[in-house]
From TrEMBL:
Substrate binds at R24, G25, A26, G27, R68, N214, K215, K240. It is an enzyme of class 5 (isomerase). This is Ribose 1,5-bisphosphate isomerase. It catalyses: alpha-D-ribose 1,5-bisphosphate = D-ribulose 1,5-bisphosphate. The keyword Isomerase applies. Pfam families: IF-2B (PF01008). Catalyzes the isomerization of ribose 1,5-bisphosphate (R15P) to ribulose 1,5-bisphosphate (RuBP), the CO(2) acceptor and substrate for RubisCO. Functions in an archaeal AMP degradation pathway, together with AMP phosphorylase and RubisCO. The active site is at C135, D204. InterPro entries: IF-2B-related (IPR000649), IF_2B-like_C (IPR042529), Initiation_fac_2B_a/b/d (IPR011559), M1Pi_N (IPR027363), NagB/RpiA_transferase-like (IPR037171), R15Pi (IPR005250). Belongs to the eIF-2B alpha/beta/delta subunits family. R15P isomerase subfamily. It comes from Thermogladius calderae (strain DSM 22663 / VKM B-2946 / 1633). PANTHER family: METHYLTHIORIBOSE-1-PHOSPHATE ISOMERASE (PTHR43475), RIBOSE 1,5-BISPHOSPHATE ISOMERASE (PTHR43475:SF2). GO terms for biological process: L-methionine salvage from methylthioadenosine; pentose catabolic process. Its EC number is 5.3.1.29.
Length: 334
């Protein structure tokens, strides 16, 4: 059994950064996890025996995943790199190099993903469009900005996205890129939808059936758009597709502190009132017209194809092991 103390301190520092949310944002979390696995492989000082190296890397992988179990980009990055760990070879040097190369490849692909999403997505925006967006998504902002540069966007409505007002970040970034923006409260979405040509939003997680888990309020935006026959595009990197949903695992919805919604003084004054503060909601695939990824634009129903192509090996191993929770140490054969 590999002890935690054998893991390099640099790797543990990255793990703690993810756990404490010093490292945040889906892309940064994913790239940091890949970097940690690369460092772990480079600094490995144990036996030059593939089976021992695999157990060591499995322990590192599980340590990383346990830091933020609900952040789907984290296990996806780990699974992508760990595919190299499970390659059939008895050559230690080949195995180690494969892990390092896979980590470098993931980091490079991740950095280029948003640019490719912007290129694909901007082509889907019609001329002279009014766009509505919700919350903050780097991918969605990139699509809208690129479409504006091409002369396709005339105005953007950006929700405030309470209670943390991430929509104000979106508004600021669009303004910095010269895009005309109107800030609106979340409750104004249905009122304003008759002016909107297309909705462009991001995603926190995409399930195997194409459902989109995103910031609370997203499903209401999609419902209002569906009612008004306005197309909804989701811009998201493929590392946000959740492979564990293939085997039936549900995406957990985080409930945060009520004081993010109302002041502590108000709660103390109204002790019999319960305040719910869900962070995310689920938009069904039938309310999504297309998902814009770095590998192309797909219908929601094709999410399972992306998962199978990119992470099918992991899904198969998890099924074979009869696991309901991802643990790489349980996948390593003695």
């Amino acid at each position: 059994m590999v002890e935690l103390s054998t893991i390099p301190q640099e790797v543990l520092d990255i793990a703690e950064g993810i756990r404490s949310m010093r490292i945040r944002g889906a892309g940064k979390i994913a790239r940091s996890a890949a970097e940690a696995l690369r460092i772990a492989a480079e600094k490995y000082q144990g036996e030059r025996e593939p089976s021992v190296f695999r157990r060591y890397m499995a322990k590192v992988a599980d340590t990383l995943i346990e830091t933020r179990p609900t952040a789907v980009s984290l296990p996806n990055a780990v699974m992508y790199v760990m595919q190299a760990v499970f390659q059939q070879t008895s050559d230690f040097d080949e195995l180690k190099k494969g892990v390092i190369d896979a980590a470098n490849r993931f980091i490079e692909d991740s950095l280029n993903a948003v640019k490719r999403i912007a290129e694909f997505g901007s082509k889907r925006i019609r001329e002279n469009s009014v766009i509505l967006t919700h919350c903050h998504s780097t991918a969605a902002v990139s699509v809208i900005t690129e479409a504006y540069r091409q002369g396709r966007v005339v105005k953007v409505y950006s929700t405030e996205t309470r209670p943390f007002y991430q929509g104000r970040i979106t508004t600021r970034q669009l303004l910095e890129n010269g895009v005309p923006v109107v800030q609106i409260p979340d409750s104004a979405v249905r009122y304003i939808m008759h002016e909107v040509d297309q909705v462009v939003i991001g995603a926190d997680t995409i399930t195997s059936n194409g459902a989109v888990v995103n910031k609370i309020g997203t499903s209401q935006v999609a419902l209002a758009a569906h009612e008004a026959r306005v197309r909804v595009f989701v811009a998201a990197e493929t590392y946000k597709f959740s492979p564990m949903t293939v085997i039936g695992e549900l995406v957990p919805i985080e409930f945060r502190d009520p004081t993010e919604v109302v002041p502590q003084e108000w709660l103390e004054k109204h002790k019999n009132v319960r305040v719910l503060n869900p962070s995310f909601d689920v938009t069904p695939p039938e309310y999504v017209d297309a998902i814009i990824t770095e590998v192309g634009v797909i219908p929601p129903q094709a999410a399972i194809m992306i998962l199978t192509e990119r992470l099918g090996w992991a899904i198969d191993k998890i099924k074979q092991a009869g696991l309901t929770k991802l643990r790489f140490e349980d996948l390593v054969e003695d």
